[in-house]
Amino acid sequence: MLLRLADDDPRPLYEQIASAIRAQVADGTIVAGDRLPAGRDLAAATGVTLQTVQRAYRTLADEGTVSARVGRGTVVAADVDPDVTALIDQVDRLIAHARALGTDRTGLTRLLESRWNG
């Protein structure tokens, strides 16, 4: 699994890792049932700590993108929806961008509601 982390990305490294995995789910590079690399292997390959990879995997598990089982590793969830996975990633990027601009949660929510309502 090839993941690229960007120095100019304002998101924490664990979010960048989760985002890169979501992108591969969204584009079909990895599909339901595919096993993700062991945390130690991905940490070594990307130059981050094991804890960073574990946090990324927990984030993906919490949202339902992956499933982690002792002895079986972390796999892409059987019921993962690539379109929803892509949307989650876009929302996370929007939030990171809004934070970088100094926009708070209320301001972003108002902006989204105004755009949604047209």
List keywords for this structure.
118 residues; two-stranded antiparallel ribbon; 5 helices; 2 strands; 56% helix
Describe this structure in words.
By secondary structure, the protein is mostly helical. The protein is built from five helices and two strands. The protein has a two-stranded antiparallel ribbon with strand order 1-2. Helix 1 packs antiparallel against helix 4 and helix 2 packs across helix 3 (50-62). The longest helix has 19 residues, at 82-100. It starts with 12 loop residues before the first helix and ends with a helix.
Question: How much helix, percentage-wise, in residues?
Answer: 55-70%
Task: Give, in order, the helices and strands.
Answer: HHHEEHH
- Which quaternary structure do these chains form? single chain
Determine the mean pLDDT: 93
Low-pLDDT residue intervals, each spanning 5 or more residues: none
The number of E-state strands comes to 2
- The Cα radius of gyration reads 15 Å
N- to C-terminal separation? Answer: 41 Å
Number of helices: 5
Silhouette = globular
